[in-house]
Amino acid sequence: MIDETDEPLYPSVEKLVQEIVAINHAWKVACELFGQNSHLSTSSRDLKTCLQVRLLRSYSPEQVYLIEDKQSEGEPLYSLRLREPIGNRLYAEHLPMRVAKEVLADKELEQFQKI
Question: Which of 40, 52, 89, 114 has its CA at a distance of 20 to 30 angstroms from the CA of residue 66?
């Protein structure tokens, strides 16, 4: 029997978190070098969002959930909180609330938030 987590179509939670973190760093560098509206910046940002949605849909609520980041300044953000640390990480970066409302159904938003 094939373990789905070994297949490229079913990445493990660890692999998804690693990819989200790497893409988030690439996005920040692209913004600094080329501006927030450059193709590389927007593509990186959108890829990070897609990976975060995939993480939530695949591993919530058992391994990850959304929680409002009350310490963030500016735009309201969710943190993707990991139930168990992966490496030294407890979060899979931030997702703006407005973006979460655009890419997730209301039922999903409710399901993915810690109650």
Answer: 40
pLDDT tens per residue across span 32-60 = 999 999 999 999 999 999 999 999 999 99
Answer yes or no: are the C-beta atoms of 80 and 19 closer than 8 Å: no
Question: pTM here?
Answer: 0.89
Q: What is the number of residues in the chain? A: 115
pLDDT digits (tens, 9 = 90+) for 63-93: 999 999 999 889 999 999 999 999 899 999 9
Structural domain includes residue 1: no
**Chain CA centroid to CA 78, Å:** 9
**Residue 63 to residue 55: CA distance in whole angstroms:** 9
Residue 112's closest CA among 78, 70, 72? 78
CA distance 113 to 64: 9
Place of tokens 């987590």: 5
